[in-house]
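Example record

One chain of 93 residues, shown exactly as stored in the release files.
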Amino acid sequence: MNAFIKPPKKIAFFLKLGIAISKRVTGKDLLVPKLLAWYPKVAISSGILEALVNFTEREIVILASTVAQVNYWARLIQGLGAPPEGFSDKCKL
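Predicted structure tokens for this chain:
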């Protein structure tokens, strides 16, 4: 697989360890962890998040549909020109 951005030549040891673990678990040489090595803080936080989050397929569908519904409501309210309750310019709080 080719990417527009090449992985860095020098990858930190702890990121190499994570890349090796992901390769062993998936059986594939994944490009995303190597690209995340450009910004180690993001690579570490992404790895921690992936390790902590374990959603079932049903939960992912519920989350995605909830996000879509809230996005729809927000755009509808914005399209009607009605500010959200309590957040108008005239509120003195």
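Notes: The mean pLDDT is 79.
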